[in-house]
Design a protein that fits this description.
Structural class: alpha/beta
Radius of gyration: 26 Å
Number of helices: 20
CATH class of the largest domain: Alpha Beta
Strand order of the largest sheet: 1-2-4-5-6-7-8-9
Oligomer: single chain
Number of strands: 11
Number of domains: 3
CATH superfamily of the largest domain: Aldolase class I
Distance between the termini: 51 Å
Largest sheet: 8 strands, parallel, barrel
Length: 490
Amino acid sequence: MEAMSVELDNQNSEDPGSPPMKNIDIWKDILNSAKFIVAPMVDASELPWRLLCRRHGAQLCYTPMLHSSVFCRDPKYRKEALVSTPEDRPLIVQFCGNDPDILLEAALLAEGHCDAIDINIGCPQAIAKRGHYGAFLQDDWDLLRRIVSTLSGKLKIPLTCKLRVFPEIDKTVRYALMLQNAGASLLTIHGRTREQKGPLTGLASWKHIRAVREAVKIPVFANGNIQCVQDIEHCIQETGVQGVMTAEGNLYNPFIFEGRYPPSWEPAEEYLDLVERHPAPSSYIRGHLFKLFQHTLCLAENQEERAILARNSTMESFRHVVQAVKNRYLPYHEGRLSWRKRNDDDQMESSLDYNLTLPPWLCQPYVRDSPQEHLNKVEAKRMELESNGEDKRKFQDEEGNEVSHKRLKKLRRIARRPNRSLSMKRRSDLCTACPNPLGFKCEYKLCRQCCRNKCFKENLDCPGHRNLTKTRRQMAIEFAAQRDDNKEVI
């Protein structure tokens, strides 16, 4: 493995008593005026993918989001998260969490292996809401102020923040100014609110980003609406930011910064070669290949390759899928065969009728439906089911109003156990050892993973998590003793 092994106790070579960096331009002096930036992506911006992107125009990369508390207590997690190479710079390590002291401890462990530390205050997912981190910290400005000031005052490298906007531009500007005044050296503004996610993602607001850029004195990166290199240049012109970050645009086309739309097997083969040198979990590899072949594997003729990719986890199976797609579409790509695409009436059309539509084997953006289009489709599907007499799952409240699917499930649950107290509600308390929710029936007030670790180290059982470590060890001891007794009898 060519990646540098991480020695976690090997901190920055500077004098430990030296003061934090002050009066530097992080963008020019530390990040080499990076304009093309690969976003931090959970299970996606690992080392092989970062190296692939850097080979094709990326000038700055982030690690995936790391849990600060897990990073502090788990050496294996820490070592795997910080694996890097000399060409993987400049690099920013991103953490999530809500405890200033734990975040500081994690940042101090990582600062010798990167060029800046980023605090994620933009993640909108449900797990971030349960753990009270990411975008769900934006309502607690006092806590954020303590986090940013604590880390910026103790670290030898710059501290940055990645955040989402509020619906109101003026509140977003005040939010950014608060983070700047607390000690942030750079801000990445994702121009969507925390409610804009999934099928309701919609467009990011560059107006919010421009307002922040004009108000603060520190560098700003923009995030949102980036699907091609032209979008990057347009975003810089519209907002005045120093750099532009992309996530989905990069995942579907890692050559985005070169302005190329390569055949999908080209980045796939190069990525798998990098994985051979710097191993990554099979789930990461599978996820990348599904996105690279997004427009190919959805075709009926490639269902076998799609099934192989979904069900297998070996490098041989991954390379088989890549080679199969390449063999099928290379003759079309080289012009030896004439490609035809299907229109809405399932009729073949000439490639001359594309109207700027790229053939499916090329890496290209994934275009989501707008929120209104998504809602229209949902409503059309519902009406179709009703007209066919298939919509039998209707619930109404006491006033005769229809209820949502979520409410429907709750009513069914109540109907099954009508005598159960409504106050018996799943708790949202957090694990005492990490930011994840604790197990509902755990005797030790821990999440599943922390409970498993505790039972393993302290020889305990936890019926709530169905973890019988102590019982099974005792059974093994008794079995071994019985086996020895039988040998003596013989």
